[in-house]
Amino acid sequence: MPRRDVYIETFGCQMNELDSELVTGQLRALGYRLTPDPEAAGIILYNTCSVREHAEQKVWSRLGELARRKVDQPGLVVGVLGCMAERDGKDLIRRMPVVDILCGPGELDKLPGLLDNAVRTRISLEDGLDAELAAERSAGQVALQGSSSRRSSTLAAAADSLEMLDLSRAISPIDADPEPGTPRASAYVRITRGCNKFCTYCVVPFTRGAEVHRPPDHIVEECKRLADSGVIEITLLGQTVNHYRFEHGAAVVVDGVTQPQKGRSYAGGHRRDPFAGTGVTTFADLLRRIHDEVPAIRRLRFVTSYPRDFGDDVLEVIRDHPRICRYLHVPAQSGSDRILKLMNRGYEVAEYLEFLDRARSFLDQPEINRPLTVSGDIIVGFPTETDDDYAATVALVERARYKNCFIFKYSPRPGTIAFDKLADDVPESVKRRRNNDLLAIQGRISDGLSQAQVGKTLDVLVEGLSRREQKRAAKPGGACGAGGAGGPGTTSLTLNGKGLSDHGGSACAIDAEETEAELPSGPPGTVQLSARTDGDLIVFFDAPAVAAALLIGRVVPVRIDSASGLALHGSPADPAYTAAAV
Ligand code: SAH
Ligand code: SF4
Ligand code: F3S
Question: Domain 5-146, CATH 2.60.40.1180 — does that match?
Answer without folding.
Answer: no
